[in-house]
Amino acid sequence: MGQALCICSRGSITIDDKRYYFIQKLDEGGFSYVDLVEGAQDGRFYALKRILCHDREGKKEAQTEVEMHRLFKHPNILALTGHAFMERGGKSEAWLLLPYVRKGSLWSVLEKLRDQGSSMPEARILHVFRGICEGLKAVHDRGYAHRDLKPTNVLMDEEDRPVLMDLGSMNKARIEVRGTKEAMTVQDWAAQRCTISYRAPELFNVESHCIIDERTDIWSLGCVLYSMMVLEGPFDMVFQKGDSVALAVQNPVNIPQPCSYSQGLQNLLSSIMVPNPQERPDINWVLDQVQSLQSSTPARC
């Protein structure tokens, strides 16, 4: 475990005997804050994620997030530079030091395109989507699932390479549900940790005897692909209007027409976003389809 010192008057912190200077706030969530910091020794920028741990369970979840980062060394999964747990004023915080990706999230890229009245070329969609799939395959190959895949949890580096982030909802890919009590536990957990408009259908009403597996990520992956094609998630408007997302996800997704993308890409999306998880493909099949589409699509600009 890393060692941390308090934030001092000069606006700096120390993690693992290395000093970092606070620059500015980047983001803020329900239980975490992200600050931009600069390394005193190397002059590089980093993102410091501070997770508020309100109880023992919160601290355990933060530790799990650290362990998930440590588990993967993959170009499409965000690396962990350092970490520390500290107590301040009777409260516990987990500090995760992460690489700073200047370009921001995939969602910010899509918002910019939408504001410009533009769209993402199919070749670029396939390039980005393949990188997301490669990262997700690494997760699934180790027996885990991300559980909260969405455009805001995909960072885009300067080379247009997608990097999966926010590993706090990750857990074992296979969850065996035995009884109503366990089903409600999983359902309540999903309601807290899996973003509603990207949540797989089987997580809204968990059956009392079933197996939840990594194909929840495949559904979310389809939502991400849809967002790159349409510049909004397939159920974003349903949620914003206050309608039932749980009901909407039970039906096949409709691709707005006319659609400027190839029939092959549309078919891929339809094949991924299948409400019944037993009929949903795995990540290897998805990757094979993406590679096939790439071989028949002109190189991106």
TrEMBL record:
Coiled-coil annotated residue ranges, if any: none
Annotated ranges, domain Protein kinase: 20-293
Reaction it catalyzes: L-seryl-[protein] + ATP = O-phospho-L-seryl-[protein] + ADP + H(+); L-threonyl-[protein] + ATP = O-phospho-L-threonyl-[protein] + ADP + H(+)
GO molecular function: ATP binding; protein serine/threonine kinase activity
GO cellular component terms given for this protein: Golgi apparatus
Catalytic activity, EC: 2.7.11.1
One protein family per Pfam: Pkinase
Top EC category: transferase
InterPro entries named among the record's database cross-references: Kinase-like_dom_sf, Prot_kinase_dom, Ser/Thr-specific_kinases, Ser/Thr_kinase_AS
Keywords (A to Z) from UniProt: ATP-binding, Kinase, Nucleotide-binding, Serine/threonine-protein kinase, Transferase
Name under which the protein is recorded: non-specific serine/threonine protein kinase
Gene: STK16
